[in-house]
Amino acid sequence: MDTQGNIVIVDDNPNNLQVLSQILESAGYKVRPALTAAIALRSIESLQADLILLDVCMPEMDGFEACRQLKKNPNCVDLPVIFVSALNNIEDRLTAFQVGGADYILKPFHADEVLARVKAHIGHSQTRRQLTALLAQRELALQKSEARYRALLNESPLAVMMYDANTWSVIEVNSAYATLAACPAQSLAGKSLEFALGSAQAAQLCDLTEQLFLRRANATALAMSAETSQASEELCMTMRINPIHTNQAIEFDARIKAIDYPYTQVCMVTLQPRQDT
């Protein structure tokens, strides 16, 4: 039978350990019994448990204190704990949930009830673990993608500037743009478009950017084809840029494109030296 999950049972009564182990093992779970909370706490992280069945009344360290200690471990914060106890008063039940318990089963327990509650919490635990692993994989993929993007951006022979279309400020520029502007890239980041381009060019770029986002909105509203939508999300203009601290203007063909970026509207302008006709 395939293992349905890893469960740690903590109870100072060997008979209870045996009965619970038999119930859970017959349902396909892998069980790790422990007679004391201290033993369980020392080994629980390395066991990669999916759930803990924890007795309340135990010598040396009771179940409530064991749960408090467990939840102090960052790697065990989300590990579900089901208390199993003969204590049937509201104060103990409230304490069980206050210290981080997920459920409370009364002794004498019934096999069907134990299995039903264990199945529910195991499912939540395994789903959470799978989502955590998936998010970690996606984060790693995003980091690799970001690294590739940074490499391509800085290796591009074309001058590229990314700017925030809400604040009209420079987000970043690549090496070619920094060379063109005769200004370090880090000195341009966060500066206004007017500082980076001059008043006239900044005003023209802002006007075209507003047109660009208006076209995007219209394309979405009209449910245009991918090809038409993509074409409408790029605009061109001629820009005359004065490298900072110089008076020599250089004329460029500029392509302006909106790009996906979280929480804000970001555009990218790519500059190519204009060919004399």
UniProtKB/TrEMBL annotation:
The source's superkingdom equals Bacteria
List, for all copies, the residue spans of the domain called Response regulatory. 6-122
InterPro entries per the UniProt record, alphabetical:
CheY-like_superfamily, PAS, PAS-like_dom_sf, Sig_transdc_resp-reg_receiver, WalR-like
Q: Keywords for this entry?
A: DNA-binding, Phosphoprotein, Transcription, Transcription regulation, Two-component regulatory system
Q: Modified residue 4-aspartylphosphate is at which positions?
A: 55
Protein name as annotated: Response regulator
